[in-house]
Design goal:
The protein has 233 residues and is α+β, with helices and mostly antiparallel strands. The protein contains seven helices and ten strands.
Length: 233
C-alpha cells in the first residue's frame, strides 16, 4: 500500500495531530503542549555528527527555552532503541565545544513509519527519501504554526536564530508590533501602519509620542529591553 500523501503544513495552520512513542514516554501532539510554545524539529539520523552537535546544543539550551515557556520536541525516522543508544553515547562519550556529559531530557520521537515526517513535510525527495531534513516548526500555545525553517542535511542549524525567533514572536504578540531585520530585544520595533489618514499625518508630523516615521508606511518606536524580557514566557 502506498504511503499517504499529506499537504505540507503552512504558517497559520493548526499543527497536525499525531500520537507517538518518545524517549520520554508517549505523547499526544500538539494537545499535550497546549498553553506552551513548542519547537518541533527533525534531524536526518541518529549517530551522525551534525545531528550530534545539534542535540548537544539544544540540550544545553533547554533551560533557556523553558524560561521562555517553550518545550523542545525532536524527531527522526529512527527507532526508539536507536534513539536511546545514541543519546547515551552523547552523554558518556562526546565532548564538543566545551560541552560534555550532556543529557538530552526533551522527548525524541520514534518515527520509523515516517508518518509524522510526512505530515510535516520533513521528507523532501531532492535531499533524501529516507531521511528527514532539518525542519524547525515554531508552534504557539494555541497549537498554531507561527514560523517554519528548513535546513538541508549538510547544514547545522543556527541556535541563536531559533531562540531569537521565539523571543520575537512572543514580543510581537505581547506588544502588537512587528520586528525589523536582525531585531534583538532593546532594538526599535515597527509600529503597525496607521489605520486612518489623521493618525498617519500625526505620526508624520511627530505628534505621536515615541514614534519615529521614516515615511508614512515605515514607523518605529523604542521598546525597552527590560520591558520585553519581563513579558516573555
Amino acid at each position: 500500500m502506498e504511503n499517504q500523501v499529506y499537504a505540507m503544513p503552512r504558517i497559520g495552520d493548526t499543527a497536525p495531530e499525531f500520537k507517538a512513542v518518545t524517549t520520554q514516554g508517549d505523547i499526544n501532539f500538539p494537545s499535550d503542549y497546549k498553553g506552551k510554545w513548542t519547537i518541533l524539529f527533525s534531524h536526518p539520523a541518529d549517530f551522525t555528527p551534525v545531528c550530534t552537535s545539534e542535540f548537544m546544543t539544544f540540550a544545553t539550551m533547554q533551560d533557556e527555552f523553558e524560561k521562555l515557556n517553550t518545550q523542545l520536541v525532536g524527531l527522526s525516522v529512527d527507532g526508539l532503541y536507536s534513539h536511546i543508544a545514541w543519546l547515551r553515547t552523547i552523554k558518556e562519550k562526546i565532548e564538543y565545544k566545551g560541552m560534555k556529559d550532556v543529557e538530552v531530557k526533551f522527548p525524541l520521537i520514534e518515527d520509523i513509519t515516517m508518518e509524522v515526517a510526512n505530515k510535516y513535510g520533513m521528507l523532501q525527495p531532492g535531499e533524501s527519501n529516507t531521511k528527514a531534513v532539518r525542519a524547525v516548526f515554531f508552534i504557539d500555545p494555541q497549537s498554531v504554526i507561527r514560523a517554519i525553517i528548513y535546513y538541508p542535511l549538510a547544514l547545522g542549524r543556527n541556535f541563536d536564530e531559533i531562540k531569537r525567533v521565539i523571543i520575537a514572536l512572543q514580543t510581537a504578540d505581547n506588544f502588537k508590533v512587528a520586528m525589523p531585520a536582525d531585531w534583538r530585544p532593546g532594538d526599535d520595533v515597527i509600529v503597525p501602519t496607521a489605520g486612518s489618514c489623521g493618525v498617519a499625518k500625526d505620526r508624520m508630523d511627530g505628534k505621536e509620542e515615541g514614534v519615529t516615521c521614516h515615511d508614512w508606511f515605515f514607523c518605529t518606536k523604542k521598546l525597552d529591553k527590560d520591558k520585553v524580557l519581563s513579558a516573555l514566557g
